[in-house]
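Chapter review: from sequence to fold.
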Amino acid sequence: QVQLVESGGGLVQVGDSLRLSCAASGRSFSNYAMGWFRQAPGKERDFVAAIRYTTVYADSVKGRFTISRDNAKRTVDLQMNSLQPEDTAVYYCAAATSIRSLTTVGGYGYWGRGTQVTVSS
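The token string follows.
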């Protein structure tokens, strides 16, 4: 069983930066694939970024967002720069203990409860 708790969301202005963090339980954290997804009101949950031994990003955030992990602390962070109104969403941390797909919702078996990010213009 893996438990995930996100933190760091908030209300920011266009162009600001925000750093999200996800704390995970589980003894084999270093072997997990970790991902960040987001869901805007009335929309599907979309892939943002993932990391296992390498990183992968959605085109919409490439160059602005950076995912990183600290295996000793069992955390995965999402540094978000140059935030835009379209980045407004609930951001979810996800963990996969068996690797299927890093970029799809179905590839992850564990989810946090989410943290709200609102970018105001």
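Two observations follow directly from the output. The radius of gyration is 13 Å. The mean pLDDT is 95.
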